Fold this sequence. Notes:
Elements (H helix, E strand, L loop, with lengths): L9 H9 L9 H14 L3 E6 L21 H7 L3 E7 L7 H25 L4 E3 L3 H10 L2 E8 L10 H7 L2 E5 L27 H13 L2 E3 L5 H10 L5 E2 L16 H10 L2 E5 L2 H4 L1 H22 L6 H4 L4 H26 L8 H15 L4 E4 L18 H9 L4 H27 L5
Parallel strand pairs: 1-2, 2-4, 3-4, 4-5, 5-6, 7-8, 8-9
Amino acid sequence: xxxxxxxxxxxxxxxxxxxxxxxxxxxxxxxxxxxxxxxxxxxxxxxxxxxxxxxxxxxxxxxxxxxxxxxxxxxxxxxxxxxxxxxxxxxxxxxxxxxxxxxxxxxxxxxxxxxxxxxxxxxxxxxxxxxxxxxxxxxxxxxxxxxxxxxxxxxxxxxxxxxxxxxxxxxxxxxxxxxxxxxxxxxxxxxxxxxxxxxxxxxxxxxxxxxxxxxxxxxxxxxxxxxxxxxxxxxxxxxxxxxxxxxxxxxxxxxxxxxxxxxxxxxxxxxxxxxxxxxxxxxxxxxxxxxxxxxxxxxxxxxxxxxxxxxxxxxxxxxxxxxxxxxxxxxxxxxxxxxxxxxxxxxxxxxxxxxxxxxxxxxxxxxxxxxxxxxxxxxxxxxxxxxxxxxxxxxxxxxxxxxxxxxxxxxxxxxxxxxxxxxxxxxxxxxxxxxxx
Length: 437
């Protein structure tokens, strides 16, 4: 049985500030054996896994080993205990019609997650609302589902929907995605320096207060830097970045720069380092992707399959998109040997070691207690070695190789994030009781 290890002693925090030392005393076999023991004992938690609701039906669902990067068989195989399923809504028009469509999309995803946990597989996975729920469910051997909202666009102009989303299980929410929302500017404004609010809107500021009041963690992944800095100034509770890495190591707008990181540290929050190839190492990923795409094009042509731009997938129906993804994955499987033999030796893919480099940097910069782990699976995430939930153990193995202790690995995988959730929920109770104004 897995258990969450809480050990936030002064000694651990002091060690965290210095960072781990590479583990050179054990053989490869001994490192693997040690890592397996640690991986089995700690609670592994991934804060960002996108979903397609066509995979949440009686006929097709996560009890099956689908092509999705996350599903129950792959979670079991890789020892991933907790998956935060995401109520994601792409940014649309800031009109009543746009808000209506966005709410319908969010409603569909909330219902799908509850359907999985309450109707399809209640014996295999359960929805958690608190850290105590996570520990209780994991102790039974079942997998744990949690809910995050990516883009608060679906609340429209009705601030009461913040509480509604909380009551439906949401435990974090970002105020924007790619494109400015009615609540917040997006990081995408860096492309053209066109901003809608120069940070948060008045409604966005109200949303921060409501999230604090009802116990929803404020998520900094995707909003603009100005919006994030303002959110941290306003929030009465610690915040998170649910899937972002270090901008100092890879200069893309989706990563957090040192100024944001230091403010997050002061806030008491946590950044969930994301295993998204182009956020981890853009240049390395570009070099590999160009050669991989060339091989895939050749294989696809021979198979009579048309590879379309990622943007075109957004125009497909759910059924057509699912069919396309299945076909694309079949092409990748056929091309796997060629990629390994022809591409990877000359243009290596972004891998788990590159990903953990970001964890090392963040631990050194802001302290281990402010760092966590995420994948962005089924939303573009994944690196070589951790490309779906079945490979989750490889992250623990890399951490062990670098000298992280079991207590530190437990904190990175889940302890830090759940500590923030506890604090956010405790502050919410005090706000509701009038103890914090």
